[in-house]
Amino acid sequence: MAPAKPDSPEALRALVAQRGTELTPRMRDAAHYALEHPGDVALCSLAELGERAQLAPAAFIRMAKALGFSGFTDLQRLFRAPLQQAVQPSYRERIRHYGGELTLDRPQDPTAVLRAFSQANIVSLQHLQADAGALPLREAIAMLQGARLVHVIGLRRSYAVAAYLAYALNRIGRSAIHITAQGGMVAEQALAAGPKDLVVAISFPPYAADTLQVCDQIKAQGARLLAISNGVLSPLGRSADLLLDVNDAELRGFRSLTSALCLVQTLVMGIAFGQRHRARKKAGAKPSPDLVDIDC
């Protein structure tokens, strides 16, 4: 039975999340590009879109038909409709500008590079701020609070975010283990995650293979999985119990980690305030959380 045609980009995103595994790899690539570059889909010809996405134009046609549209033109109408009301570019579109389209006129000038990176980080945080209400933050904090033990993995460019999260959780008294994969022992380190534990996996394109391997492994071991990644098409989303969608900008191959770090700081602060609030309430004192001495 063919899926009902989505009536908005948000509905399309939800449908892709639901049926993404049924699409071919090229169709998934086309869907990912369409969701991340709605302006291109709305305004470019099919040939121009294929050239920009570095995909065969037929991939967009097949993807559109697989998701309930009559063809590419039908899909294009979906993305053109919001442009009639939009005046300012969306944060996602602005992030795209700092995701490879920005040209550094003087890449040899460190001052110009710093300004470009600073602006890319600003755009990333603005996007995170705009999407904050849609993130399941309370659910994520509850998962972190309820686990017997928290295991954190993030490799390659995500390593710094994972290391910080494990450090900060331990600083607030929430036991956490950082899966570092040192010595090629990533599978062995993940064996410690049991049915009462939670694994937090952090990964962004091109997705570290060892992180994906650990996600499959810990699900087989019965542990729960909280994923921090870049949306519904992330391979982490297929096995995660909960996904936190973060879209950091990327400039000349360097991904900003600002939004991801801001997100994990929010999670840690939510746990710390909750713990202190409950402790003071149990003692009969007026709740007055103070995190100055935490040093996170």
Under the CATH scheme, the architecture of the largest domain is 3-Layer(aba) Sandwich
Largest sheet: 5 strands, parallel
Name of the CATH homologous superfamily of the largest domain? Glucose-6-phosphate isomerase like protein, domain 1
Query: What overall form do the CA principal axes indicate?
Result: globular
Instruction: Give the uncertain stretches in residue-range form.
Output: 97-101, 285-289
Backbone structural class: alpha/beta
- Give the spatial strand order of the biggest sheet: 2-1-3-4-5
Radius of gyration: 21 Å
CATH topology of the largest domain: Rossmann fold
Write down the overall mean pLDDT.
84
Q: Provide the domain count.
A: 2
Query: Which CATH class of the largest domain is shown?
Result: Alpha Beta
The secondary-structure element order is HHHHHHHHHEHEHEHEEEEH
Topology, number of strands: 7
Beta-strand content: 5-15%
Would you kindly provide a written description of the structure presented here, covering whatever features stand out?
The chain has 296 residues and is of the alpha/beta class. The protein folds into 2 domains: 9-84, Arc Repressor Mutant, subunit A (Orthogonal Bundle); 134-294, 3-Layer(aba) Sandwich (Rossmann fold), CATH 3.40.50. 52% of the residues lie in helices and 9% in strands. The chain has 13 helices and 7 strands. Strands 2-1-3-4-5 form a 5-stranded parallel β-sheet, with helices on both faces. Strand 3 (198-202), helix 12 (209-220) and strand 4 form a beta-alpha-beta unit. Helix 2 (25-36) packs across helix 5 (57-66) and helix 9 packs across helix 13. It is globular. Mean pLDDT is 84; it is low at 97-101 and 285-289.
